[in-house]
Queue: 2 jobs
Job 1
Amino acid sequence: MSDRTLAVAFISPALLLLLAMSVFPLLWALYLSFTDYSATRGGPAHFVWFENYTAILASAQVHLRALTTLIYVVGAVTLQTVLGFAIAYLISRRTRGRGVLTTLFLVPMMLSPVVVGLFWRFMLDAQFGVINSMLGSLGLGQVEWLTRQRTALISLIVVDTWQWTPFIMLIALAGLTAVPKYLYEAASIDRASEWFKFRTITLPLVWPLLLIAVLFRAIEAFRLFDLVYILTNGGPGVSTETLSFHVYKVGFLGFNTGTASAYGILMVLIVIVLTQLYLRYLNKLKED
Amino acid sequence: MRLATAAMLVATTMAACGQDDGAQSSAPKAPATIPELTKDPLTLKFIWFDWPPAHALEDFANAEYAKERPNVTVKVNTVPNANWHDAMFTQFAAHKTDFDIAVLDSQHIGEAVTNGNILDITDFVKKNIDVKAYNPYLLAAYGQYPQAETGKRDENASLYGLPLLGDTWTMIYRKDLIGDKPPQTWDEMISVAEKCQTDNPGVSGLAFHQANGSDAAAVTYNTVNGVYGGNLWDAKTRKIDGVLNDAAGQEAMDVLVNKMKPLTAKGSGNWFIDEVNAAVAQGKACIAFNWIAASGGLLDPKQSTLGTTREQILDKLGFAPLPSQKTNLVPLGGMGMHVSAYSSEANQAEALNFMKWFEQADIQKKWAAAGGVPARTDALESPEFLNAGPFNKVYADSVPRMRDMWNVPEYARLVDIENTNVNAALNGAKNPKDALDDIAKQQQGVLDSGNRKGGGGL
């Protein structure tokens, strides 16, 4: 057996699996997005060309969900980045117990989002939740965390931050430990202040890595579904209904498969375009 | 570019091959006579949502049906209530189900029938079921399509299911706080709840469903709409806008949001069945509304702080039919049994045999004694049922007062629109009048789209 045949034999199973499980569904979804197909109503799929796409782009409901998603992504990722970097910075300055601390901080990230959602649903319950109980003991009033428009979205951001700050922390920690020590030593000799060292050495060197972490988290946050489903079910009303949650409703309540496919494709396109712009910025940063 | 074009062509060809021919647009017919049953071991599978009646059904069927069919095991697969519709209809969409009998809500029938997902059992019913034994509205609600909006069963309409569990809301009231006599009118009920809340700090006047999942908030609004003389739609003209949000509808929304909501516990805007039961069991509500079939746990001392025995709890809790106001309508709950069109022939035959067995008068009485809520009139009036639970008489008295929702293929989208908007109004995210107008407008849009595929559903 030649090297080439052997290579093909080894690669083929994985390639076929990838084609069957990822590429084909994506292409099929792309095809369905141009049709009026409904998974339950059956019947042949008729081409409606860009009708699904125009309906989605013109829909006020979609615009509202896009705004909700944007607020959520910006809020959650910003908070996670600030907290994650701050924790990583503090941990990196410790020499003892760093490993234990890092492991402890990583625990929320290891949990399933459904478990996290249910856990926080009980924690945030207005009547019986621990959070309100603590607020009550401090003499503060009850807060309707999950059933008021503003607090519901804030609750989602807080819960997501609780779970995913460790991810940013981990990457920031990797960046911080990779900064060459001699730079700090040279700065110390020059009697540079801590703030100066942070501003001119630490931040510029860790920043590109941090931006990659932000990219990963932003893509993840853009696809948010599970926490919404468990914590608020999109409510009150539709005020925490994200784009992903809305696609689920279009796909599984009305079984408008064609529309849901177009919606999904549009979301993928948006992520690809924004990621490309972001990567260009990253490359530019690298070159500079 | 060439690669993309080629990929698109491949996808188009494969997808086109994958489409069915659209021939199955109506439900296939079940045989009038039950085919020969297998003697081999067989598991008859149901799908329902996770609540006490589902577990009661599995225990009851395995204990009783096994006497007649020892080779058959009954398995009731359960999913969370919020996933119930999706769990059934995604399998229907795949034309392959891991269940033989779908327990469908009355409103799901339209979608299942028009998609050809369940068997037309009209001929089977004619030959095997005594239809005169039922309240005609119940038989129509759980099995007939198109639905009988008048409340009278259309003898000529097709049947697709038979009743499994009847249900409606009961008013649960604290006898020790508001007295033995339940309020008779809705206005009186609000006033009694208000006084009770004022007199008992820490106890809320009312507890009811407000969540935006399943049909929680929608049923609450529909109930208030009904008692204040409103209508959900004009079924003949398929008109919702202008009907739902007429003066009666506006008054109902005003009562719900401005008079009832302030009497509920803070943060109860996402409450459904379990949360309302928890509030009652923990002595946190003066008056509550819940589905009868889900109320059994309230009498369990292990789950209640109201007493250490069932009798002590019953000294404090009373169950009554809903108060009336301009009308005496109550919501129709419960579900029917429907045979999956994609089940194997042997399992479909077994499912039909089970349904015939289950609908017999003596079995319905045994089902009532086991915690079920029967639909046969003789079982409803039997001592076995009336003595099985303090709320069973409430159900028997409520049967002539029932009103269902719209039993149309677009149900899932209609109920989502209503749920989210009522939930928004109840939680201060939307002005009540705007919410009602939005429901009417958006639901009308769904109906007017005529179940059109593509470009919709947003």
Job 2
Amino acid sequence: MNFEFSEDQKQLRDQARRYLTEQSPPKAVRAVLEGNAPYDKALWKGLAEMGFLGVAIPEEFGGAGAGHLELCVIAEEIGRALAPVPFSSTIYLAAEAIMLAGSDAQKAKWLPKIASGEAIGTLALFEGVGNPSHKAIKVSASQGAVSGTKTPVADGAIANFAIVAARTGSTGREADIGLFIVDLTGDGVTRKPLANLDQAHGQAEITFDRAKAEPLGNTAEGWNILTRVLDRAAVLMAFEQVGGADRALEMGRDYALDRVAFGRPIGSFQAVKHILADMYVSATLARSNCYYGAWALSTDAGELPEAAATARISATQAFQHCSKNNIQVHGGMGFTWEFDCHLYYRRANVLALSLGSLTYWENQLIDRMRFRNAS
Amino acid sequence: MNFDDTPQEAAFRAEARAWIQANAPKEFEAELSQPTVGRIKLKNRDILEESKKWQTKKAAAGWACLHWPKEFGGRGATPIERVIWQQEEGFYGKLEGVFLIGQGMCGPTMMAFGSDADKKKYLPPLASGEHVWCQLFSEPSAGSDVAGLRTRAEKKGDDWIINGQKVWTTGAHFSDYGIVITRTDPTQPKHKGLTMFWLDMKSPGVVVKPIKQANGQSEFNEVYFTDVKIPDSQRLGKVGDGWNVSLTTLMNERMSIGARQSTGFPELFAFCNDLMLEDGPAIDDKNVRSKLAGWAVKASGLKYTSYRSISALSRGERPGPENSIGKLVAGTMLQDIAMFAMDLQGASGALTDADSPSIAGQFQSILLRSPSDRIAGGTDEILRNIIAERVLGLPGDIRVDKDVPFNAIPTKGR
């Protein structure tokens, strides 16, 4: 047993951290947040050149073919830096869906473009208020086209293509849902950017009107594939969340060492120390659960569904906990636009909802644990 | 990142499994395989005796204190092999509870500071369960402020004379030996005037009085020393260096307690799965599910945090202050879980009869036992200080007694 990243993987992490610290400073995040650009194009191109976008994509499809542990390492750094790029939509969701269920032709068409940064992808799943549920899907697919409205779609305004979950039958079962690849630059696609908590993680409404759609995998297996994609994305997103949680903890710690009140650094007061210790605890538990998820993801273990839900819940809680308490440690300054605390607070709360809410994953976890206990 | 055994580890696992299969005390399988947060009952048999029997058998075959060197009764095993053994030993490992303090804390301290002759003489019987050891640290006036202890040791010729009182000493009533920290120079600031010794618990002048706890049981004791005479050869570490010696003990304590801490989660999950509420099984209730999920990820996080510690140990790193996390999280969790399980039982939750619902007072027993898990071996608050100061690098608390000679520090209360 070895429950740590390898030396090579740690080197990759250092390399990614150096790169992102330099290329994705808070100033760059703010430029996107404040609406000056829909995403950081130069950073996206740079990430592609560094080989980070294609790190888990096989070499035959233009990637580095390193694997999912390496992708976890990069995801953590993306989260630490709050990188304002469509990384999660394109890499965790679109690329994973294509790698999992795509035909050779679909892989050959999209994966090299993803690895090179040429194509931005996303998953069009939600249709208004609520969590992932096959019953909630009304967008319909027939005769090679989809119609209906998806909202919100992460990075929907800038994506080149989307994996769309659409209804193909009316039996009321999961088998009614199929997955389709839709070129968002083609006919029959209307997009509307939506204001949201973190403009550096843009959202959009997309309406399809008989937009050309190509099945991704067996259409009767759509919901099953989607569940597997969400599980994989949950692990990767959890690393992003842990990266953010760790950075928020560091910011709080550094400020507590620096800021003096009542004649002492505030970090010498037990009340403040205990806030920071609890932040460390939540971030550490989440990190350990993420490692479990990374192991399950990289080996495609039978435990993946349970490990993914565990990592997801733990990391969601940790990032929310650390980002809100980072503001608390900073006091009034933490609530200003000028300080970076709110960037992490926003991102924590957007990521907490992005693949289905905490409640949704809690339900998933309990169902999966029950299933395992029963079997 | 993997869970796979190397070929060597797989061979070790197979050997361990075969031996356990052939030798484990299967007559207690039913009792030990039940969820047992709290007290274990072995039919009408004495748990100490049965624990010693199993430990002796393991020691004879080379399965005791696996990570200790062979010459001290261990096996020289790797940290991973130790985990493999624990996995294979499974619920029979519950029989090791009475040895935890001796083997987990006193042994490593003896190994680091004892004389070669004493190590060879006393460590093997500690490993084999023949001797039980206890750790005499806390005092009435020094709980979290461990270094505020007042038990005196005074040099008289080649001997030391110990006078004073210890408290919260787990297992002192059945221990053969103990390690004791004393004040040897009250004119020094409090951390500097301490010295550590080991002693025979049957030495003249040692009196052990069990304390009746809030849960009605007596696991802890008061221990009184009246003119207890021990030779200087029973000193561990240098005179005045007892604080550093005790830090070795405490670090091992947090590692060994943290890694084995019960969270109560498997018991709660099973309980919620079986319990029928008015509207159906408890586990279908939204509130129940949310609570369970929150605790599930904590229990899982602790498990994999300990795996990460073991990976670090196997690379040769020492157990560090980050191991404080295990007890900190598990202690509170155990208490909260007990309250939640009782809440689900409604008014019946207050009953402790063995006749009441299938769970037979289990969570009620945890409720009354769990406060001590948040105190013994470092309170939640002390553990948070350790994380804040020694992991995160925040400043130490302001200590008004720092640099003040111990005999000039005012004290009151217990």
